[in-house]
């Protein structure tokens, strides 16, 4: 770190410090006024939108050499049959990822089940994860599991039903299909 310190991109450093300070201050305000606010201020989303707008308007990439996300292809890839020749190379890692993903999913499910008074069927969870990953394999998707951070945020903002998950999924789908290209100038 010390050897590379003289090569620091000052523009990137300043951008990162401003973003971190803003996020920290708003997080503290969210925590302090949690009872008075109907929902926490989504500072991460606001930071992304503002930094993308500033980067686009000022052209931070060209003027200060700040690395940006760049071109994001939009749309979904057509389904293809997975390349069977890779199966032998990835079977060990795939098994480990599946076990860890399943364990996290069941653990998180049981935590919420205990908190809200419902039951989690581990067999049903295993079948659902397996089916999702099997179908995702045809669309070149990453292996899926639950997201602790997203689940906790959704639960803390009152999204306790399947409708909240459907709405979040639709927002992600719209982002993948159309909105993703707007983040071309988002600083990394």
Could you walk me through the main structural features you see in this protein, from its secondary elements to its overall organization?
It holds the Pfam family Sulfate_transp. This is Solute carrier family 26 member 6. InterPro entries: SLC26A/SulP_dom (IPR011547), SLC26A/SulP_fam (IPR001902). With 188 residues, this protein is mainly α. The chain is built from seven helices and no strands. The mean pLDDT is 88.
Tell me the β content. Answer: under 5%
> Mean pLDDT, as a whole number?
88
**H/E element string?**
HHHHHHH
Total helix count?
Answer: 7
Inertia-based shape: globular
Give the helix/strand class.
mainly alpha
Instruction: Report the biggest beta sheet as strand number plus sense, adding barrel if it closes.
Output: none
List the uncertain runs. none
Count the E strands. Answer: 0
Distance between the termini: 19 Å
Radius of gyration: 21 Å
Helical fraction equals: 55-70%
Protein name: Solute carrier family 26 member 6
Main location: membrane
Organism: Antrostomus carolinensis (Chuck-will's-widow)
Subcellular location: Membrane
């Amino acid at each position: 770190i010390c050897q590379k310190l003289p090569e620091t991109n000052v523009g990137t450093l300043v951008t990162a410090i401003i973003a971190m300070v803003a996020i920290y201050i708003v997080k503290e305000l969210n925590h302090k006024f949690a009872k008075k606010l109907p929902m926490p201020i989504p500072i991460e989303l606001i930071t992304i939108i503002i930094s993308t707008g500033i980067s686009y308007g000022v052209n931070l990439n060209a003027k200060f050499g700040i690395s940006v996300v760049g071109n994001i292809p939009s749309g979904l890839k057509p389904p293809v049959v997975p390349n069977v020749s890779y199966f032998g190379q990835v079977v060990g890692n795939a098994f480990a990822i599946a076990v860890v993903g399943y364990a996290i999913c069941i653990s998180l499910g049981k935590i919420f089940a205990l908190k809200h008074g419902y039951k989690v069927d581990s067999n049903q969870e295993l079948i659902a994860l397996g089916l999702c990953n099997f179908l995702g394999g045809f669309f070149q998707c990453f292996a899926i599991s639950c997201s602790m951070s997203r689940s906790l945020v959704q639960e803390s903002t009152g999204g306790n039903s399947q409708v909240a998950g459907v709405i979040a999924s639709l927002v992600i789908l719209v982002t993948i299909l159309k909105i993703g290209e707007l983040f071309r100038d988002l600083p990394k």
